């Protein structure tokens, strides 16, 4: 799967777009060869507005001449900051939204191409992430602002996998997801955004300190069920979890294949999907990463999980891979 050119991370560590390795432009990018169009926009024109020239709809000034209105002393008319400049300049209108191939995930295109999810709790950040408001037209034909949250692939294995080119994450609007290794809930919150009010995320975390943060996050998100318990013993929380469509696991334990299988046996529908983040050093720090990944895939097969897809998470994570598989409940389990 293509990540873009491996070297660059696209405009600094936090930026996903623009440069050689980012979300836009490079081999694995979303858009054209650069950041799009002129220096500030995607389409025709230069730094400023949609109208082609630097300012308003006609020449540099207002509707007619070069000045800031009609005569020099008049009103500003279509001056440099006029309405015609919305959508391509530095203001909030510079950002346009495109749906990603994974339902519930979007690309916000501006100075950089950013992976975003629609905020379930507008006005609220979970871990200090950037929020973007984008104008949209509702069913009644009225314009409204919708808030999206930037999803940083350097802080989320799932986001890194999406930008890396996973064909199917199986997490979509309305899905029921069991998330093992939820930590403080930063990635869980984006999964919450994706599944929306008709879905649910059962988030399991063993450590009590991040578990407290997870519970705090879930208080504002009605589709998140926080569970502070050991994923090795799913029977302890079986009364809290219904049958789910997908298990996402980021447990980073040597016996993670067994942990996932135990939870799948209790909670995953037959034919359900499993998405596993594998950290090679946590399984065997002495073996090459590729060897660890191959061994873990074999362990998954023994547990009734049929691997369908695998990719490494570079340049976002070193010696990490994501494996996507299907669970067959009646295949010898």
TrEMBL record:
Organism, as annotated: Kwoniella heveanensis BCC8398
Region Disordered: start-end pairs: 1-97
Name of protein: rRNA 2'-O-methyltransferase fibrillarin
Family classification: Belongs to the methyltransferase superfamily. Fibrillarin family.
NCBIfam families found in the cross-reference section = PRK04266.1-2
In terms of Pfam families, this protein maps to:
Fibrillarin (PF01269)
Q: Name one GO molecular function term.
A: RNA binding
Q: Where in the cell is it found?
A: Nucleus, Nucleolus
From start to end residue, where is composition biased (Gly residues)? 9-92
Judging by the UniProt lineage, the source's domain of life is Eukaryota
Q: Which reaction does it catalyse?
A: L-glutaminyl-[histone H2A] + S-adenosyl-L-methionine = N(5)-methyl-L-glutaminyl-[histone H2A] + S-adenosyl-L-homocysteine + H(+)
Q: What is its main location?
A: nucleus
Q: Which UniProt keywords apply?
A: Methyltransferase, Nucleus, Ribonucleoprotein, RNA-binding, rRNA processing, S-adenosyl-L-methionine, Transferase
Q: Which GO terms describe its biological process?
A: box C/D sno(s)RNA 3'-end processing; snoRNA guided rRNA 2'-O-methylation
Q: Show the GO cellular component annotation of the record.
A: box C/D methylation guide snoRNP complex; small-subunit processome
- InterPro entries, per this entry? Fibrillarin, Fibrillarin_CS, SAM-dependent_MTases_sf
């Amino acid at each position: 799967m293509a990540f873009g050119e491996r070297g660059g991370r696209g405009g600094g560590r936090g930026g996903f777009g623009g440069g050689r390795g980012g979300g836009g432009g490079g081999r694995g990018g979303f858009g054209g060869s650069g950041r799009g169009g002129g220096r500030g926009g995607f389409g025709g024109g230069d730094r400023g507005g949609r109208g082609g020239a630097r300012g308003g709809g006609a020449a540099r000034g207002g509707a007619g001449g070069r000045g800031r209105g009609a005569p020099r002393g008049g009103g500003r008319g279509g001056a440099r900051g006029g309405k015609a400049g919305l959508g391509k300049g530095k203001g909030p209108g510079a950002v346009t939204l495109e749906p990603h191939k994974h339902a519930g995930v979007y690309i916000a295109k501006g100075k950089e191409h950013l992976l975003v999810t629609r905020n379930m709790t507008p006005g609220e950040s979970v871990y200090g992430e950037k929020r973007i408001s984008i104008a949209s037209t509702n069913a009644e034909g009225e314009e409204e602002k919708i808030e999206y949250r930037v999803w940083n692939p350097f802080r989320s294995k799932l986001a890194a996998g999406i930008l890396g080119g996973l064909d199917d994450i199986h997490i979509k609007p309305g899905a029921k997801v069991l998330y093992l290794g939820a930590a403080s809930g930063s990635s869980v919150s984006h999964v919450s955004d994706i599944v929306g009010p008709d879905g649910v995320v059962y988030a399991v975390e063993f450590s009590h300190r991040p578990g407290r943060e997870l519970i705090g996050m879930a208080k504002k998100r009605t589709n998140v069920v926080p569970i502070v318990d050991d994923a090795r013993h799913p029977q302890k929380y079986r009364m809290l979890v219904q049958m789910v469509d997908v298990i996402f696991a980021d447990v980073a334990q040597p016996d993670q294949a067994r942990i996932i299988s135990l939870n799948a046996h209790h909670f995953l529908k037959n034919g359900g999907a499993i998405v596993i983040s594998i950290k090679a050093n946590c399984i065997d720090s002495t073996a090459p990463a590729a060897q660890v990944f191959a061994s873990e895939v074999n362990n998954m097969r023994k547990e009734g999980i049929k691997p369908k897809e695998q990719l490494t998470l570079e340049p976002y994570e070193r010696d990490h891979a994501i494996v996507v598989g299907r669970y067959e409940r009646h295949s010898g389990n």
